[in-house]
Amino acid sequence: MSQNGTMIRVDHVTKSYRRDSIEIPVLRDISIDVPTGEFLALMGPSGSGKTTLLNLIAGIDRPNAGKVIVNGTDIALLGESELARWRARHVGFIFQFYNLLPVLTAFENVELPLLLTGLSRKEKREHVEAALNLVGLGDRIHHYPKQLSGGQEQRVAIARAIVTDPTILVADEPTGDLDKVSAAEIMDLLDRLNKEFRKTIVMVTHDPRAAEKAHKAMHLDKGELTT
Amino acid sequence: MFIIKLVLKNALRHKLRTFLTILGVSIAVMSFGFMRTIVTAWSSGVQSSSENRMITRQAVSFIFPLPISCLQQIQQIPGVTEVSYANWFGGVYRDAADWKNFFPRIAVDPETYFSLYPEFIVPADQFAEFKKERNACIVGEKIAQQLGFHPGDIIPVEGDIYPGRWEFVVRGIYRGKDQSTDLTQMFFHWDYLNERMHVEAPGREGFVGWYVIGVRNAADMPRVAREVDDRYKNSRSATKTETEREFQQSFVSMSSAIINSLEAVSYVIIGIILLVLANTIVMAARERTKEYAVLKTLGYSGWHIVGLIAGESMLIASSGCVIGLFLTFPMAMGFAKAFPTFFPVFNVETVTIILAVVVALFAGVAAALFPATRAVRMKIVDGLRSID
Amino acid sequence: MKIPISYTWRSLWARRLTTTLTLGGVALVVFVFASVLMLSHGVEQTMIDTGSDDNAIVLRRSANSELVSQIDRDAANVIRTNPLIAAAGDGKPVVSTEVVVIINLLKKESNDMGNISVRGISPEALALRPEVRIVEGQMLRFGSHEIILGSSLAKRFQGTGIGEQLKFGDAQWTVVGHFEAEKNGFESEIWGDVEQLMPAFGRPVFSSVTLKLKNAGDYETVKKQIESDPRTQYTELKREKVYYSEQSKLMSDFIKILGLVVTIIFSIGAVIGAMITMYAAVANRTVEIGTLRALGFRRRSILSAFLVESVFLSLIGGGAGVALASLMSFVRISTVNFGTFSELAFGFTLSPSIVVSALVFSTLMGLVGGFLPAVRASRLNILAALRSA
Predict the structure, then answer these.
(1) In the predicted model, what is the mean pLDDT of residues A1-30?
(2) How far is the alpha carbon of A84 from chain B, nearest alpha carbon, in Å?
(3) How confident is the model at residue C273 (pLDDT cuts 50, 70, 90)?
């Protein structure tokens, strides 16, 4: 349940990295609101801070200042293990290079997030099969990543991202490594997740065609919003 | 559990590397077991010493004999059940340079000696035959097997301490009560030795190398020892009486430098196990940095990652340990066959096995320590960025 | 085209942790290898250094140590008259009739017992053994109950200080001097007047007779003379050096064999460690290798580059191992010599041949360990390698 229809609120967030003894600012006092059910594209040149912003929203990084409120929770205040639990429950992450575990089958990769829950074996299997069917890979359940094409791997990754029915989906250059046809398929899938299943999606991308599917695009440059 | 499955699959990712690591660990464990077995075998004499036997020898050193007259006097000390005596005969059997030919040759008083050493079991009929003949002898099963001695065979010995040519007839073969009994000795009649000394070197007649004293209650031993030694303190043949265990221990500690070196080597082996294992685990963990980051993204905690790393480390360590222990036994047996009289008792002790297991487990944990800490501390974003 | 050496050591540096671990393994193995060789050499040196080329020792036939040998006075006197024996300044033949027994002394640090050889000597003993020098106190007076002992004993056993008295054989014996003998076997002995010690121990016969030949080449002649003379027929002559080295043979062999077994096992472990490291190195640099090949470097160059890296690694490790082993030269071990059953002190002796052997050994380990991985590296398919990024 969101407050006032806002799923994600980034409130005056600043983030910088330390390299040796130099502080490199990446995000300067950024504030954005993402309404529930929105499909947002974050765009900008490299080094603009868009991936950093994504990471903050997904809870895999912490801001130096400011608040990151997702679904009513200020995740910047959570401790490490609380944050981990929060991520498991609320976030589905899709990476540019899929990041599937090579030693696990498609089924086992998708099952990974569910192992942190208390579901029974049967329930877990049902969820995994449902997710894989949804992304159109019901027939490749027991294949290993190296037996799949890039597009198929990404779809497994998406299945993994949605299998726990997370609150938000976060995608970092999801089509960055795919050919035109596969990229289009993936974007269609994300579109469907957003429209049919009302998933709030925040996506970082370079690809203008990918951005087309989003409702809204925000541009960042040197750590600041330019739109 | 899932972690176990993932650990297994991870280990099989680089079959060659995992195989080599397990091989390395198992060889190290095998040599550890082997070294320690040598160390324990060295002191096996101490372990198998009886609780109730004492040895009396000349105080200055055991190369000086004691007069036979002490026998009666020692027998009369309260608490003493039986007294026997023996002389180390020595001599040279065949080619002395080949150590397979070496075995202890000891002149004893048969009745009392075998009574005090019930662990040497001689068939009654053989013992009767032995008693009948002056130059008869009884040999241990192991040495009989090794040098092919059968009842009726003659053992020719060139004497050194007692010069001249000697011939002994095998009339009995003794076996041991348990695994720790020394089966490499040869016993003959003290009277035979004494008679010959009477003829050839009268000054040496009537002397024994040492006395063996049986004491009824172990608690009486210190008192008995004192009584014996006090009695002869100021005589020509001052004595030193101690428990058989102390007596054996004093021999063992003479070689303490070597034993300690072997023990030191066994510790170095532990270091090697660690290095080989750590090398592999560090590499494996580094390769999977990104995967660990992904797992963390999915909500897995640092402890899960530790479990994966430690699990793989323990898996390899324990596989290596099991194989290594399996190999230790045939290695020990081979060594024992090659040098039977060097180490009359050469068994792989339970303690050694337990130690090897502990060492392997310790190595498994220690090897995982550094990479696991790294993995726990690693920030997700850094991990995702890493290029393997 | 040849691949530059800087590629080799920079690659090693880039993967410092694994490199260090492998180096450590190799160093350890080479350390053990070299130490064992040094120990065995040390035992031999101690014994070989014991004795002179122109000395010979007479023992009872088939006695393999002085402890079990007996030679009576008559035989000793016959031996003394042999014309081929060197004469001292005063015309007396340089012959020492000696008796050897074992006594027990307590070690200083552990209170454990040790077997110590006590040697009764004649005054000519010093002429026979010029390497013996009194370093503290003074030489014993013959005809008294004075004794001198090797500095090695003085360090490790109780009651051995100058002026202290040891009791054995029914009498008190006063320590009046400590001697050194170039670290040979005599340094682990106690010396006293043979004519005093014999009655004290109730031994009417000598253990051995040691003599100095006028010419070392006369040995065979003297041997035949003594062994065929009916009065000394039961004796046998040996070169002093040969006798003493035989005493240590059992010990030396035991150490060598044990050491060899240990080293073989260890080196298998090190080779495995090197292999693992090199395989990983190859796997990690697949792209590099593909690039090098694409640039025109031949398979052979890749093979040798990796072999060189492996050998480089093991040579450094080997060098470290030898350096560590050389520290062992400061260690002296004392234990019972199986041959004589008495205490013997020896050290770890480094020699140039040992250093060379150790380095050759580590190079071999590097070659064996690195060979298969290097072959794999050279066989990589260029395209597959480049694509594996």
Answers:
(1) 83
(2) 4
(3) confident
- The dihedrals phi and psi of C245, each to the nearest 5 degrees, come to -70, -30
Residue C206's closest CA among C105, C128, C308, C96? C96
Structural domains in chain A?
37-48+79-225 (3.40.50.300)
To test the contact with chain C by mutation, choose from B254, B267, B286 the residue with the greatest count of C C-beta atoms within 10 A, namely: B254
- Domain ranges, ordered by start, for chain C: 5-48+247-387, 62-233
> DSSP for B78-142?
TTEEEEEEEEE---B-S-TTSGGG---EEEE-HHHHHHH-TTEE--HHHHHHHHH-TTEEEEEHH
User: What residues contact B222, with CB distance under 8 A and at least 6 apart?
Assistant: none
Beta strands in A36-113 (DSSP E): 39-43, 65-70, 73-74, 91-94
Other chains touching C, judged by 3 or more CB pairs under 8 Å:
B
Q: Which of B9, B299, B384 sits opposite A103 (nearest CB)?
A: B9
**How many CB atoms lie under 10 A from the CB of residue C113?**
19
The reported pLDDT for the residue numbered A1 is 46
B98 CB neighbours in chain C (<8 A) are none
3-state secondary structure of A37: coil
In the three-class reduction of DSSP (H, G, I as helix; E, B as strand; rest coil), residue C343 is classed as: strand
Q: Which residues of B245-268 are buried (b: 16+ CB within 10 A; e: fewer)?
A: bbbbbbbebbbbbbbebbeebbeb
The residue with tokens 């323990």 is: B314
The 3-state DSSP class for residue A208 equals helix
> Residue C388 carries which side chain, given as an amino acid letter?
S
- Does the model's pTM come out above 0.90? no
The pairing of strands B136-140 and B164-176 is parallel
DSSP C139: P
Model confidence pLDDT, tens digit, residues C213-259: 888 888 898 888 888 888 888 889 999 888 888 877 777 777 778 77
Selection from A46, A58, A48, A43 nearest residue A28 by Cα: A48
Cβ A119 vs Cβ A152: under 8 Å: no
CA-closest candidate to residue B170, choices B196, B145, B195: B145
Name chain B contacts of A85, Cβ cutoff 8 Å: 299
3-state secondary structure of A189: helix
Are there at least 3 beta-carbon pairs closer than 8 Å between A and C? no
